[in-house]
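Q: What would this chain look like folded?
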Amino acid sequence: MLIAGIDEVGRGCLAGPVVTCAIILKEDFFDERIKDSKKLSKKMREKLYPYILENTISYGIGVVCPLIIDKINILNAVKQAMHLSLSRLSSPYDKLIVDAVALNHIDKEYIHPYKADDNYIQVSAASIIAKVYRDRLMERLATIYPFYKWEKNAGYGTKEHIDAIKECGITEVHRKSFCKNFI
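A: My prediction, written as structure tokens:
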């Protein structure tokens, strides 16, 4: 039975997109180091990233930009990104495990338990791939907007990031609905 796992990253950020990954791992693949991306160091995530991809049957990335997040709200943006990542899988799957988000219009058996990224390797692997993908994107955006230090905070609401917003204002990469208290 092929199981697809899906997770999101960047839900609580002040800047940048929300990113999801849907992934189908090889059937017998297991590695105890693979766990929720929030529980791993950046160095370990970067180390596991190519290893996970080598042991993947298929994966898809879904990205929803701040403009859409502001328009439809973060939960709907997460769902949209999840559907995008699922649509990008090049291989069929038998079952889907989603981390804590109930999706509509899924024609396969699926579950959406809370903390799935702690209990299912497919969801943990999706979490790592999505996190590395998004962090790299934010590092590239930091070269365009260096004052916000996104290479360090990935767009999250750190003191340094909030101070930069107060001093310089927001960019088109910021989520206006998330930053309204700082501008």
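The first strand starts at residue 3 and ends at 9.
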